[in-house]
Here is the input.
Amino acid sequence: MNQELQENYDLGNKLFEKGKYSEAAPLLESFVKLFPHYADVHNKLGIIASFKGDLKKASEYFEKAIEINPKYTEASLNLAVTYNDLGEFRKAREVFAMAAQIAHPEANAVDPFIAGKLANEHFKVGNIYLEFDMNDEAIEEYRKALKLHSGLADVNTKLGIALRNKGLVEEAIVHFVNAKTINPNYGVAWVQLGLCYYMQGLIGLAFEEWEKALEYNPSLKEAETYLKLVKKEDK
Here is the structure.
């Protein structure tokens, strides 16, 4: 994939996320003509077609997305809704039943798409609690989010902050390290881990974390500020 196509793909997705469907559609359509095996693009084009009232076209896009990825729960649910709107109730029930079976192969399994949505809601509530210094409540929400979806660097980082606020620095460090492992480019985790080390008197380790944070994200002002302060103290 050349750079221009990659840029069109990225721009099309950004426009879609902003709800600018008319602008996103031609970019995504041109992309999928060249790369027809991107299930997420077919799903997005299906949503756009549905929004425009072209339910037949929407169903075709959703069908293609599921053909590419039979476990694409979101596309399956979108197709079931579209079939229902088209009056094809038997098809709607069949697709919905298959989606449920794929999403819940085990009795207590949670569909990854739903788990991600729920985790995000717990994360939002946790952030509100953290804002008002209600750390116990924030920790509870962040733990719920990670139970649903453990691979979230931002949730691990916020949980680490709440734990550190309560003086649980060693446990906080574990979550900051987890965040770094999940996403090494997430500079905030490096900054917060540096603060933990600094609080424990490990100045050298703190310095290393903040330098690494700037290496990954040169615009991270917090890391730059902490480095300057530590250098002044050394003088």
